[in-house]
Amino acid sequence: MNPEHLELLVTRVMPYGKYKGRLIADLPGHYLNWFASQGFPTGEIGRLLALMHEIDHNGLSSLIEPLRKR
């Protein structure tokens, strides 16, 4: 896991959809699960959504909490 990718989770916003404008790290689990079942989009946003899904699904949100405080 690349630390720079974790940093992106707390700085990048969702560019479209129901949660447009919300930080990737703040997306609800059910939304991330929906993407996992339907397929993540291509590109950086898709990779970040997949990473956030893994973090959320495995209860590892504490990994990104220190990055929020910067």
Fill in the keyword field for this structure.
Cytoplasmic protein, QSregVF_b, single chain, 70 residues, globular, mainly alpha
Count the domains: 1
Taking all Cα atoms into account, the compactness measure Rg is: 11 Å
Q: Assess the beta-strand content as a share of residues.
A: under 5%
Q: Taking all residues together, what is the mean pLDDT? A: 93
Structural class comes to: mainly alpha
The proportion of residues forming helix, as a percent range, comes to 40-55%
Low-pLDDT segments, ≥5 res: none
Give the strand tally: 0
Number of helices: 4
Order of helices and strands: HHHH
The termini sit apart by: 20 Å
Major sheet size, sense and barrel closure: none
Globally, the shape reads globular
Task: Give structural notes.
With 70 residues, the protein is mainly α. It has one domain (3-60). Helices cover 51% and strands 0% of the residues. The protein has four helices and no strands. The longest helix has 15 residues, at 43-57. The two termini are 20 Å apart.
Brief overview:
It is built from four helices and no strands. It has 70 residues and is mostly helical.
Spell out the blueprint of helices and strands.
Blueprint: H1 3-9, H2 29-38, H3 43-57, H4 65-68
